[in-house]
Amino acid sequence: QGGSFDVADRMFHSVKSTWESASRDNMSDVRELTPEFFYLPEFLTNANHFELGCMQDGTVLGDVQLPPWADEDPHKFILLHRQALESDYVSAHLHRWIDLIFGYKQHGSAAVEAVNTYHPYFYGDKMDLNNIKDPLIKSTILGFISNFGQIPKQV
């Protein structure tokens, strides 16, 4: 990242604001939970006291702000996430997520019906970078892929 942190307002600082952005407020916010949300409470704390910056509203960034049900305890937050992931409900519905990410709802009309479509740049099987001759366009596409990832191959 060039030896510096991102702009404070764009950094992960609050579970609530990140959830609201990804689930409601910003349809281009396509984040998903990383494995750390289920096993690593330390990723939620600024144990080294890095100066992460100050947001436009004056909030100084430090530890990630957790939801009230976590009682400001990263260990409790991770434990409850893991319990939810291992719950009967998730076990009964996990196939739906697999269909979206790896299965038939990844492309075509099923993807449209499931509101699971992305910019064509993110579909690796649809984008042949070797055929793009303009270096600026190629660099832009690679930037998108580097920052946002690609849709995995369908299984």
In short:
The chain has helices spanning 15-25, 74-85, 88-101, 108-113, 135-148. It has 155 residues and is an all-alpha fold. Keywords: Repeat, WD repeat.
Explain the layout of strands and helices.
Blueprint: H1 15-25, H2 74-85, H3 88-101, H4 108-113, H5 135-148
Keywords: Repeat, WD repeat
Domain BEACH: 1-155
Protein name: WDFY4 protein
Order of helices and strands: HHHHH
Gyration radius, in Å: 19 Å
Total of helices: 5
What percent of the residues sit in helical stretches (DSSP H or I)? 25-40%
Give the termini separation.
33 Å
Beta-sheet strand percentage? under 5%
Briefly note the structural class of the backbone. Answer: mainly alpha
Number of strands: 0
Globally, the shape reads: globular
Largest sheet: none
- Pick out the low-confidence regions: none
Overall average residue pLDDT: 91
Keywords: Repeat, WD repeat
Protein name: WDFY4 protein
Pfam families: Beach
Domain BEACH: 1-155
Structural notes for this entry:
By secondary structure, the protein is mainly alpha-helical. It has a domain at 1-86. It has helices at residues 15-25, 74-85, 88-101, 108-113, 135-148. The longest helix is centred in the middle third of the chain and has 14 residues, at 88-101. The protein is globular and about 50 Å long. It starts with 14 loop residues before the first helix and ends in a 7-residue tail after the last helix.
